[in-house]
Specification:
The complex is a heterodimer of chains A (about 450) and B (about 220).
Chain A lengths: L3 H19 L14 H18 L1 E3 L4 E3 L3 H10 L3 E4 L6 E4 L11 E3 L8 H12 L6 E2 L6 E2 L2 E2 L5 H20 L6 E2 L9 H7 L11 E5 L5 E2 L1 H12 L3 E6 L2 E2 L6 H19 L3 E4 L2 E2 L8 H17 L4 E7 L6 H17 L2 E7 L12 H13 L5 H12 L20 E2 L4 E2 L1 H16 L8
Parallel strand pairs in A: 1-11, 5-17, 6-9, 10-12, 12-14, 13-15, 14-16, 16-17
Antiparallel strand pairs in A: 1-2, 3-4, 7-8, 18-19
Helix pairs in contact in A: 1-2, 1-8, 2-8, 2-9, 3-8, 4-5, 5-6, 6-7, 8-9, 9-10, 10-11, 10-12
Chain B lengths: L3 H9 L3 H13 L4 H20 L5 H18 L13 E7 L7 H12 L2 E5 L6 H11 L3 E5 L7 H12 L7 E5 L5 H7 L3 E3 L2 H17 L1
Helix pairs in contact in B: 1-2, 1-3, 2-4, 3-4, 4-5, 5-9, 6-7
The chains are: A alpha/beta (about 450), B alpha/beta (about 220).
Chain lengths: ~450, ~220
């Protein structure tokens, strides 16, 4: 049995640094989208050694859940190569993709970690759902329902979880796509009790929606998460391990971050029997993952997973800049190129760490444009992706230190009643499309 | 004769055994304990500088903070009253009930340590009463409550309401922070301070101490 501090500082951090050195995993800032297959293989081997020795800490018992290398590999092999989300004509298959794959990415075009007013939940979620490119969407967090502040572990969580489920199902029916999956049902449910409550028949959620088991950073879990996991396994639901290794935190710099990101897939397979994996590493200062060093780690770790396993992986963007800014388009395009060329499926867009700090800030057309880049550039080589990403980085990375552009809230971008983008929003979208094309990005939709 | 630079270097390297060995040597050689203290604190500044340049990360700073505390505990009997490396104040920090996120709390706690506060870290998922009991135990100046989920922010409000209810609101300064937390939220719940970023949190803590001393 160990304390969290001992686990972190005497086991996790030293081992991560040791394997980075042993397997010669070194960051190259000149290539945010690396094209080194041998390096990707070494990252996988480093992660395997790391996770087999460090395991996952259960914070409730202080015990470490460990697996041998053979057990880890067995768990990885047992994972499915594709996951079915939704049903009927909106059934979406999220597949294992390979590096430089011509198989299009599954498009989870949404606003991550979005907090909304109760009255705007419907217009916002419907507006995302109505975009035809979107195959999976996320639900939003509603901090107050009927003027009641939603909390955790008490009856207000029950209220928030169940009413959010009802509201989401209502939104997908109103948008004319009742079969589309919610990838992160139920965001208002923090505890297992909340998940179990919200998934009761009658509230509208289905096993073919997606349900997260969020890892506790770094490489930790608790009994409540294991309980919700057990419930979801029994219910035959889609289980996604959600993980956010922190650049600059216990996972250190880009090279150790890449290794840790891969090790999380191992944790998800072995501990949670997840069938899909949702990754969003974050920069500890900027709360984004479009930073050059994080982009490198994301690209490389995705390549390691794509080369060495058949796991279904989606990478979730958290942009530094907000809706309807030029910068968010460049960040999203860089993300799409890095992820798609490396073998990932495309998720996005969260904004600067998400949550109630930017309530109602989202723009479905920003996400749509990211999806158009992802589809238009499918099959792009990593070398070409790297060249274009470097150009995109030059358009936003210098500004990262100076803060961020907040952009505009949904109510200023869309006609709320019509669920339609306002003329300015459409003009901006068209302008940014032209801008991306001038950078050599194809937006042709298959 | 001991080279004080070696103490600084050992702090930066997170080498507790070496720091303890050198501090003992310094004490044995009758080196001015204030100079040894300065060498330890310099190590903290150096690791802080490396952190800002992303040459070191949160675990390195946390280890350095622990190493310095080990060195200071050896030095304390030889320091005059009032010669303390952390004269700025005492802070109780934690993440509120229902929330298990700790990276922001760890970063803020570490930065507060670097800049001269005594920091008492409660950990995560702590009810309001835990913050208050610890603050009373160590006679804290500031209570710092972190929340990273929209649905756990209520814990910050609960803390302030409990302090008000028990008549102790004026005894402790309360500052809040975390991903979804805003200045508006902090104002609405009656918090004394808010930190949007870790650096902002440190400045807020300093400002709160000035305010407290002026009272």
């Amino acid at each position: 049995m160990v304390t969290e501090k001992d686990y972190d500082l005497t086991l996790l951090v030293p081992k991560l640094r040791e394997v980075a050195k042993k397997y010669d995993v070194a960051y190259d800032p000149n290539d945010p989208v690396p094209s080194d297959d041998a390096l990707a293989n070494r990252v996988f081997e480093a992660a395997l050694e790391f996770y087999s020795e460090v395991g996952t800490l259960c914070v409730d018992t202080g015990r470490i859940i460990r697996f041998t290398r053979d057990e880890i590999m067995e768990a990885l092999r047992a994972c499915p190569k594709q996951v079915a989300f939704g049903e009927g004509k909106d059934l979406a298959l999220m597949k294992c993709r390979k590096v430089e794959d011509f198989e299009p990415p599954c498009l989870w075009l949404t606003a991550y970690s979005l907090s909304t007013d109760e009255t705007l939940f419907g217009p916002i979620v419907e507006s995302f759902i109505q975009e035809p490119l979107t195959q999976i969407v996320s639900t939003a967090i509603v901090p107050e329902i009927n003027k009641i502040q939603i909390g955790v572990g008490d009856p207000t969580e029950y209220l928030g979880a169940t009413r959010s489920a009802l509201m989401f199902h209502d939104a997908r029916c109103r948008a004319g796509r009742p079969g589309i999956a919610c990838g992160n049902a139920v965001s208002a449910a923090i505890t297992a009790a909340g998940i179990m409550a919200a998934t009761r028949p009658g509230f509208g959620l289905r096993p073919n929606d997606g349900y997260y088991t969020p890892a506790i950073s770094e490489f930790k879990i608790d009994m409540d998460r294991l309980t919700r996991n057990a419930f979801m396994l029994d219910w035959n639901a889609n289980i996604g391990l959600l993980f956010s290794p922190i650049f600059g935190g216990m996972c250190g710099g880009p090279n150790t971050l890449a290794i840790a990101n891969v090790a999380y897939y191992m944790m998800g397979s072995a501990v949670c029997k997840a069938n899909f994996f949702a990754s969003f590493p974050l920069h500890f200062l900027y709360s984004n993952n479009s930073h050059r060093a994080v982009l490198w780690a994301v690209s490389l770790s995705q390549q390691a997973i794509s080369q060495c396993t058949h796991l279904v992986s989606v990478q979730e963007l958290f942009a530094r800049n907000g809706p309807l800014t030029e910068e968010i388009t460049y960040e999203a395009a860089a993300w799409a190129l890095a992820v798609v060329s490396s073998g990932g499926n495309l998720g996005g867009i969260g904004f600067c760490g998400g949550g109630d700090r930017h309530r109602n800030y989202c723009n479905p057309l920003d996400s749509k444009l990211m999806g158009e880049v992802g589809i238009g550039m499918v099959g792009v080589s990593r070398k070409d992706a790297n060249r274009i990403v470097k150009g995109l980085l030059s358009k936003y990375e210098k500004e990262l230190d100076g803060g961020y552009c907040k952009g505009k809230p949904f109510g200023e971008l869309y006609d709320i009643k019509k669920r339609a983008p306002l003329p300015e929003t459409v003009r901006h979208y068209e302008k940014m499309k032209s801008g991306l094309k001038s950078l050599g990005i194809s937006l042709k939709v298959l | 004769m001991i080279h004080l630079d070696l103490i600084t270097e050992a702090v930066v390297n997170g080498n507790r055994n070496r720091v303890e060995e050198l501090v003992r040597q310094g004490i044995d050689e009758k080196t001015d304990p204030r100079q040894i203290l300065r060498a330890l604190v310099q190590g903290m500044h150096d690791i802080g500088e490396k952190w800002i340049r992303l040459e070191a990360f949160v675990p390195d700073v946390m280890i350095a903070a622990d190493v310095i505390k080990a060195g200071i505990s050896l030095l304390t009997p030889f320091l005059q009253a009032g010669e303390d490396w952390a004269p700025l104040g005492k802070v109780v920090i934690g993440t509120v009930k229902g929330d298990i996120h700790d990276i922001g709390k760890n970063i803020v706690g570490t930065m507060l340590s670097i800049t001269g506060f005594h920091v008492y870290d409660l950990g995560v998922d702590k009810p309001a009463i835990a913050f208050i009991e610890k603050a009373k135990e160590i006679n804290a100046d500031i209570i710092a409550a972190s929340a990273l989920l929209t649905t756990t922010m209520q814990g910050q409000k609960d803390l302030i309401e409990l302090l008000t209810h028990t008549g102790e609101k004026n005894r402790f300064m309360v500052m809040v922070g975390g991903g979804p937390v805003t200045q508006e939220w902090a104002n609405s719940i009656g918090a004394d301070g808010y930190g949007e970023t870790a650096a902002h949190a440190v400045q807020t803590a300093r400002d709160l101490m000035k305010r407290k001393r002026a009272l």
